[in-house]
Amino acid sequence: MFKNLYRYIILTFEIIKLNILSAMEYRATFITQVVGMALNDILLVFMWTAFFAKFPNLNGWGVQDTFLLFAIGMTNFGIYRIFAGNAEEISYLIARGELDYHLTLPKNVLWQVSTAKTNISAIGDVIFGVVLFLFIVTSWQQFILFAFISILTALILYNFIVLLQSMGFFFGNFEETADRIFHILLGLSLYPSTSFSGVLKFITFTIIPVVFTAWLPVDVVKNFKLVYIWYIIGFWLISLIITLFVFNRGLRRYESGNMIHVKM
Amino acid sequence: MTGTLAIKFYKYFEIVKITYNNNTTYIGDTLGFGGLVAMRVWIFVQLYRLAFDTIGASQIGGLNLAQTIWILALAQCFHVSNRTRKIMKQIDYEVKTGNVANAMVKPYNYVLFYFYSCFGVIGGNLFVTVFFTILTSLLVVGSVPVGVIGITAGILLLFLGFVLNNLAILIVGMLGFWTESIDAYRWIYDKFLWILGGIFLPLTIFPDKIQTIVELLPFNHMFYGPARIMIDFSPAVFIKYLAIQVAWIIIFSIILNFVYRKGTKNLSINGG
């Protein structure tokens, strides 16, 4: 099992390398996408800096916490989109019966679909996230923790997006809805955790798990609480089991589009 | 002459109608938009309620919490209704694939076609998003006093705001003539709208000097300005906003015309 996992990891890196190299053929677009995304992230940080200049403290949450939130949020989002950039297209492929191509390939279908595309702008997100963290970091141990948490939460983001996109197997056209729900998660991930209460807070623990992808990781990196790491790992495991179950169930319902593609 | 103008008007009116119909075909999709706006209003309420509480202010820049939320919610709703991303991507796609050549030989002006299409898209979404925005805002912060003059003046500014944003969308879309992807420009334009356009930050939180500069920029006059006039009408501010809007519309029209002319000269299409 571990040998198999190791092979998949090596193969993933090789595929991503190929994806990036082929994107680099269009050098100007590649650079514009990476730099453009980094600039986009800088503007977002500026926006929150302007907000905190007026409201310096939201129930104990300050601008430093927001910087940390952005560092983790941009890095985990970037990692997920570099390694599984095509996962966001699953419901699109289902609706058009275009999953067939991936079904004919020898490796796991979900892995095959997910790694088929690398989102180039995501490289800008990771660069921004890491550089921002370098301004905050106080020790190398904290940096390792940051890297570990970013990868772990990227896996949670991946599970969440696959789960959402798999709804396409059951509802047909679910593309727009999946995209919107995911963007709500992304939007919420940039807000201070202390600003929400009541039903909205409950939603962030369950349906849209911002707590596990953004807020709890900030607490872990800031204050190192081992128990929180276990919560995040537990949530990742549960979300993985649910996601795989739903995707595989859905795959059985999938109807081919009878499309013939020639991939050169 | 009058007959030709009438035909032209009818032609572009039909374009608005067709785009409107395309955008209202999937009711679920439009309702989903409404839901998204409602969710954002809810988030804004929680954030700004806490923000007002923490600094112990009942008013910021002359606006109380309810007014601030209503303005942000309306600006948000107008912005979402415009579906900026969809239209920019469509123009970019046409330029990239070369379909633009096909569109350019059709009996309409390519720029005007998209300009009017934008209004069809807006019409298809605006009523639903406004309904959800009003409903959510009423439920979470209650009503705010508004007058007929303020609403009418706001609607006029909103119409011009949409014109301004449509011109900006077209300018960014036309950058596809030079670059292989306009995504980066779109993200940055969007962030300027969020920060300086009052979509996320109410302009009243900026220091006075910055506010004066921001008020002269075009971003604030697309959605925030009209929303502010609807909620907090002042004749002097209205006249000022109107003058700035008109000035930017003229500037953007000139830029668009220039970019389009230059871009089409830059266009190379492979036959097929």
Order of helices and strands of chain B: HHEEHHHHHHHHH
Main beta-sheet strand count, sense and barrel state of chain A = none
Radius of gyration of chain B: 20 Å
Percent of residues in helices of chain A comes to over 70%
Please tally the β strands of chain B and state the result. Answer: 2
Beta-strand level of the residues of chain A, as a percent range? under 5%
Query: What number is the mean pLDDT of chain B?
Result: 86
| Strand percent estimate of chain B | under 5%
Q: How many strands, which pairing sense, and closed or not: the largest β-sheet of chain B?
A: 2 strands, antiparallel
Largest interface comes to: A-B, 35 and 31 residues
Question: How would you describe this protein?
Answer:
The complex is a heterodimer of chains A (264) and B (272). Chain A has 12 helices and no strands. With 264 residues, chain A is mainly alpha-helical. Chain A has one domain (2-253). Chain A starts with a helix and ends in an 11-residue tail after the last helix. In chain A, 41% of the residues are buried. The longest helix of chain B is centred in the middle third of the chain and has 32 residues, at 110-141. Chain B starts with a helix and ends in a 6-residue tail after the last helix. Helices cover 78% and strands 1% of the residues of chain B. In chain B, strand 1 (59-60) and strand 2 (63-64) form a beta hairpin. Chain B is built from 11 helices and 2 strands, in the order ααββααααααααα. Chain B is mostly helical and 272 residues long. Chain B is globular, with a radius of gyration of 20 Å. Chain B has one domain. Chain A binds chain B through residues 26, 28-29, 32-33, 35-37, 39-40, 43-44, 46-47, 50-51, 54-55, 57-59, 121, 176-177, 180, 184, 187-188, 191-192, 194-197, 200, and chain B through 29, 32, 35-36, 39-40, 42-43, 46-47, 50-51, 54-55, 60, 179-181, 183-185, 187-188, 191-192, 194-195, 200-201, 205-206.
